[in-house]
Write a structure and sequence with these properties.
The chain is mostly helical. It has 39 helices and seven strands. It is flat.
């Protein structure tokens, strides 16, 4: 609950509890004041209160007691009592026989009488247009009521109100909120951005600007002015008022409205270039339309800027922008100059397109990728050749993909008609970003090199490596992904590769960074990111979180990801309940992946469902061969469930050690339960047996055997024993040959049951 909503609730609740209260909400037109009155009315209705709401327009200020008569109209039946006779004439607007003091006291008593029957909430909109007589009565009532159940909630564009004891000033609405509101009302994403930029945080202006657009403009298929023309009765009224101030003022306001940064010197210079007198700007300030402070100016009413811009013909507005562009001549003013040149152009213009392209590149360099993309799109509108237009659109497409904006990507795709193989590769990248899958690119006699072709080839190679569990190739191809400009696609692939390598904590960091970029996207990548995050949740022992995540998005998931989601849900259920048999959740063992990873998961599935230890051992051997520690650890987990209770201790020990090294805590409870069962079914202090084969090992081989039996990898064993990895590999191969075994698991079992002889083994 926001602070303002809390104040509204407190005000209404006070009156509902029998104590008068008042609140005034101040803000410019269109800032959402009326919405808060609606909210207050709903809250009052929930409390069982009587509500009365009135509003006013400028003409109402000329009608004495006009606002009061509207307020009392719903209660006119109660005015038949002789005690209220003084109020009856104002209901017919006959004020010749009315004493204002008597009206004030009688209206106050009447409201108190109504409140004694049922608490009242008075909603007073735009009180700055109320007539003075009505304001006097309402202010008197608000000051005098104390133990009367009346809530006064008023709004105005003024800083203070004589009615409200507490005044709250509405802050500008966030651009994201306004943008979502416009898109929800059917506006194209790019057009919504244009309206948001012109509204300066005022949702009412944004709506008026959107209402002034044609259907084609709303859909993004027709060009939209830098400052769209607003629509509505208020606009016509404001335009008539501004024209009444004369041509000099109007033309000065047009140039001021075109200079959206509020640079006073730029406006004065542009007026001089256009041959307009300086006095118009000063007169606008004296009329209260502008406020000049130092080198900057601002419109006192944001609506005036939107209206003033359209006081002259389009050709005159373009001339104003060209005059402003001439003033922004310095290198650091390139962005302002480019935008004014664009607004002043009336057709394709290479210089304008080139200037906008430089601005886009600079914005991207500073991290403003969305701004860069919008600027590049704008540059494409001024391109003089199809090749230049394609270049600008491809730049915009790259930045939209990097920001994960599906609306931006779709808009560029509608405009992009590939002229060469590289552009066709870019189009395929965009379609796959949105919808997943693979889009073939066929282009006869085309060069195979190009930035988009190289990017696509790299991405497909990384994704193929991730699908096969080849994390070394994936991470080597991805390179350093710690840069601030790393894309969501690269971060997501990094998370998958790190997961396969057993670095789940690092994988979580990469997945979180990808999700932050994809947060407001509905692309295929964003849904993939949800599921990658859910997979990591399961591995870290948070199956409940994974289930909640998947259930919240399952109905919206693309069909291609449904199987992945089903598999994760089944794995999460197994993680939550260590007593649940794996055979009851066959979907948890769906062999997702290709190549070695697919083979390993297929072998694990066969081992679990067919209770086949040979298949499970094959999966473990393959996982170790391809350095997939999580699959190896989980393979040993499920193998231990197939083994006799008195033979599974070593398997459990190695599984636990391998999974915990990878940051996997998903199966801790299940492994603990299996270990307990193994302990209960075996003699607690059974003597360990002599093993001639192990006794015959050299001291170096025996140390390696101990390290491996404790769950260490070859690299970890080498670091612990201060020998090379090749030496560990050599000793293992020698031990396998001497002992007649084939795997680390068999070695661990032999070591678990072995009673070392007294003395030491000599080389």
């Amino acid at each position: 609950m926001t602070a303002l909503e809390q104040l509204v609730v407190t005000t209404v609740d006070a009156a509902a509890g029998g104590r008068s209260s008042s609140l005034h909400v101040q803000g410019p037109r269109g800032s959402g004041k009326s919405w808060w009155l609606d909210r207050a009315g709903n809250i009052a209705a929930e409390r069982g209160m009587t509500t009365a709401r009135i509003g006013a327009v400028v003409e109402d200020r000329q009608i004495p007691f006009g606002a009061l008569s509207m307020l009392l109209a719903p209660f006119i039946g109660g005015l038949d009592d002789p005690a209220w006779a003084i109020l009856r004439p104002i209901m017919t607007l006959d004020h010749r026989r009315v004493d204002p003091v008597d009206v004030k006291h009688t209206a106050f008593q009447f409201l108190c009488t109504l409140a004694a029957e049922q608490p009242i909430c008075l909603l007073l909109d735009d009180v700055h247009w109320f007539d003075a007589e009505s304001l006097d009565v309402l202010a008197f009532a608000a000051r005098r009521t104390d133990v009367d159940a009346i809530a006064f909630i008023s709004t105005s564009t003024q800083d203070r109100s004589t009615i409200g004891s507490t005044t709250v000033r509405l802050q500008p609405t966030s651009p994201l909120t306004i943008h979502r509101m416009l898109v929800a009302n059917g506006l194209d994403d790019g057009v919504a951005n244009r309206c948001v930029d012109a509204a300066y945080g005022n949702p009412g202006i944004a709506i008026a600007l959107a209402d002034g657009l044609t259907d084609a403009q709303r859909a993004g298929t027709a060009p939209v002015s830098l400052l769209p023309r607003p629509s509505g009765n208020l606009i016509d009224e404001l335009q008539n008022r501004l024209r009444a101030h004369g041509d000099a003022v109007c033309r000065s306001l047009v140039v001021a409205a075109a200079e959206h940064h509020g640079t006073t010197a730029a406006v004065r210079a542009a007026l001089a270039t256009l041959g307009e007198p300086f006095g118009g700007l000063d007169e606008a300030e004296s009329l209260g339309l502008l406020e000049i402070v130092g080198s900057r100016f601002g419109f006192t009413d944001p609506w005036v800027r939107s209206v003033a811009y359209h006081l002259v013909a389009p050709s005159s507005r373009r001339a104003a922008h060209r005059a402003l562009a001439a003033w922004f001549a310095n290198a650091e003013q390139a962005a302002e100059r480019a935008w004014h040149l664009a607004a002043g152009a009336d057709g394709p213009n290479h210089a304008v397109a080139e200037a906008l392209e430089l601005v886009a590149v600079d914005a991207a360099r500073r991290g403003g990728l969305a701004t860069a993309a919008l600027t590049a799109e704008r540059a494409s509108e001024f391109a003089t050749t199809p090749q230049d237009r394609q270049q600008h659109l491809l730049a915009a497409l790259r930045w939209w993909i990097d920001t994960a904006s599906t609306d931006g990507v779709r808009r560029v795709l509608r405009s992009l008609d590939p002229l060469d193989h590289d552009a066709a590769a870019a189009r395929a990248e965009a379609v796959e970003f949105l919808d997943g899958g693979f889009v073939p690119v066929n282009w006869e006699d085309a060069p195979v090199d190009g930035p988009w072709t190289r990017q696509r080839s790299r991405r497909l190679a990384v994704e193929t490596a991730c699908e096969q569990g080849d994390h070394r190739t994936a991470l080597r191809t991805l390179g350093d992904t710690r840069s601030l400009r790393t894309t969501a696609t690269d971060l997501l692939s990094t998370a998958r590769a790190l997961r396969h390598s057993g670095r789940t904590r690092d994988a979580r960091d990469a997945a979180t960074a990808a999700s932050a970029i994809l947060e407001h996207s509905d692309s295929f990548r964003s849904w993939t990111a949800f599921l990658v995050g859910a997979d990591l949740d399961i591995l870290q022992g948070r199956g409940d979180d994974a289930i909640s995540t998947i259930q919240s998005i399952r109905d919206r998931l693309p069909r291609a990801l449904q199987e992945y989601a089903i598999t994760l849900m089944a794995r999460a259920r197994l993680q939550r309940d260590p007593n649940l048999s794996p055979t009851t959740e066959p979907a948890a063992f769906t062999p997702l992946g290709t190549g070695a990873l697919g083979e390993i998961r297929e072998a694990i599935r066969s081992g679990v469902l067919n209770r086949d230890q040979t298949s499970m051992q094959l999966a473990i051997d393959l996982a170790e061969q391809h350095s997939l520690p999580i699959e190896a650890g989980e393979g040993r987990l499920w193998l231990s469930e197939l083994q006799p209770a008195d033979d599974r201790s070593a398997t459990i020990k190695i599984s636990r050690a391998g999974l915990q090294r990878s940051g996997v805590r998903a199966w801790d409870q299940r492994l603990a339960l299996l270990a307990l069962l193994a302990e209960e079914t075996s003699p607690r202090h059974s003597p360990r047996r002599a093993d001639p084969g192990l006794s015959a090992l050299s001291q170096a081989e025996f140390r390696v055997a101990e390290a491996v039996a404790n769950g260490l990898t070859n690299r970890e064993a080498a670091a612990t024993l201060i020998i090379s990895v090749k030496t560990v590999d050599f000793h293992l191969q020698q031990m396998y040959r001497k002992l007649g075994i084939r795997s680390r698991t068999e070695l661990a079992v032999r070591m678990t049951n072995f009673e070392p002889p007294q003395g030491s083994n000599d080389d």
